[in-house]
């Protein structure tokens, strides 16, 4: 019997982290095998092919939302159905110009493909004190069973926008322009979701759902052994609402009635999904659905996720099911929490394939 060196996942993760070059660095080194720290548990890699091949999340056309009351009500009805039954939908004619979408996608790619020494200046795991930072796997040292095949840069856009000097020149203009449009679209979405609850259009805005915006740009390099790992493990979002732009490569799947459903790229569309906080304050009426991203031999895949929440700043606001939505017949399903309490626990837990929201069920 030859002596085998015991595999130490912590040391493997630390060595990977200390390169500050992320998964892109591994691919640039022309590795042909996925390192052990990226090997996902077998059960996380089953059923990659959707069991219902042609099932698709709803697509909603916003072209008529400002035309007249009847047109807006028809859109609200579709949003309501999607938020209650799917937790996800795609939006077309959302008002963000195609060139703005293309530029943020290209800007994200430019940053991630920048000279490693330039990128390293932005490398950080201090998520609370920087407005812009880059790393690979926010939960690298958490309890997630494996490392995901992606790199990310993150930027806190609101309520305290970064100065131009804090952002890399490769994507600075694109981020300012895109985030301006995202804030505007977010405002409209929260109005439509408020109306879908049968409430006044500004009710969710009044609860500061629109106040904070965190933008992430994920970079998923081509993977030599995509059957061994995941781009992003199964999770739901710790946000009120997420707006996602994905390129044309695909790989995003959502869990719908216990089956994985592919979210096929639709040029010019944006993907909207309900986050954990919105499920909590709507008392489970709107659903925050688990989703994941498969690794792919093709690539790089670029996606830009904009999270409406308020996780960075200390915020003493306590959130629970909205009083307008609870009654004797429909008592609160969740206990009250602060965003910080939720986010700290969510971050510590990492993407381990379980729902953190379940810890707050009454």
UniProtKB/TrEMBL annotation:
GO terms for molecular function: dioxygenase activity; metal ion binding. Residues 211-310 form the Fe2OG dioxygenase domain. InterPro entries: DIOX_N, IPNS-like_FE2OG_OXY, IPNS-like_sf, Oxoglu/Fe-dep_dioxygenase_dom. It holds the Pfam family DIOX_N. Keywords: Iron, Metal-binding, Oxidoreductase. Gene3D superfamilies: B-lactam Antibiotic, Isopenicillin N Synthase, Chain. Its cofactor is Fe cation. PANTHER family: 1-AMINOCYCLOPROPANE-1-CARBOXYLATE OXIDASE HOMOLOG 11-RELATED (PTHR10209:SF714), OXIDOREDUCTASE, 2OG-FE II OXYGENASE FAMILY PROTEIN (PTHR10209). Belongs to the iron/ascorbate-dependent oxidoreductase family. This is Fe2OG dioxygenase domain-containing protein.
């Amino acid at each position: 019997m030859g002596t085998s060196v015991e595999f130490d996942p912590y040391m493997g993760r630390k060595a990977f982290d200390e390169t500050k070059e992320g998964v892109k660095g591994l691919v640039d080194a022309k590795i042909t095998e996925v390192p052990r720290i990226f090997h996902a548990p077998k059960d996380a890699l089953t059923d990659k092919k959707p069991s219902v091949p042609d099932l698709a999340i709803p697509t909603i056309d916003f072209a008529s939302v400002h035309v007249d009351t009847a047109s807006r009500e028809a859109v609200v009805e579709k949003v309501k159905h999607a938020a209650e039954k799917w937790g996800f939908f795609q939006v077309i004619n959302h008002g963000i110009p195609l060139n703005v979408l293309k530029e943020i996608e290209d800007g994200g790619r430019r940053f991630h493909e920048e000279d490693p020494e330039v990128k390293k200046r932005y490398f950080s795991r201090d998520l609370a004190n920087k407005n812009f930072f880059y790393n690979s796997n926010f939960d690298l040292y958490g309890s997630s069973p494996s490392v995901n095949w992606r790199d990310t840069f993150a930027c806190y856009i609101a309520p305290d926008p970064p100065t131009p000097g804090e952002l890399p020149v490769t994507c600075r203009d694109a981020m300012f322009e895109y985030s301006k449009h995202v804030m505007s679209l977010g405002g409209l979405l929260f109005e439509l979701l408020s109306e879908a609850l049968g409430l006044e259009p500004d009710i969710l805005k009044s609860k500061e759902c629109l106040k904070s915006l965190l933008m992430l740009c994920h970079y998923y390099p081509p993977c030599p052994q995509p059957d061994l790992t995941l781009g992003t493990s199964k999770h739901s979002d710790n946000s009120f609402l997420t707006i996602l732009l994905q390129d044309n490569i695909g790989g995003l799947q959502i869990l719908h009635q216990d089956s994985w459903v592919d979210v096929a790229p639709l040029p010019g569309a944006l993907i909207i999904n309900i986050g954990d906080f919105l499920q909590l304050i709507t008392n489970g009426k709107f659903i925050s659905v688990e989703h994941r991203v498969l690794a792919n031999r093709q690539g790089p895949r670029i996606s830009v996720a904009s999270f409406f929440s308020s996780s960075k700043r200390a915020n003493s606001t306590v959130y629970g099911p909205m009083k307008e939505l609870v009654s004797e017949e429909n008592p609160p399903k969740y206990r009250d929490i602060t965003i910080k309490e939720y986010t700290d626990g969510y971050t510590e837990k990492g993407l381990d394939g379980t729902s953190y929201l379940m810890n707050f069920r009454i």
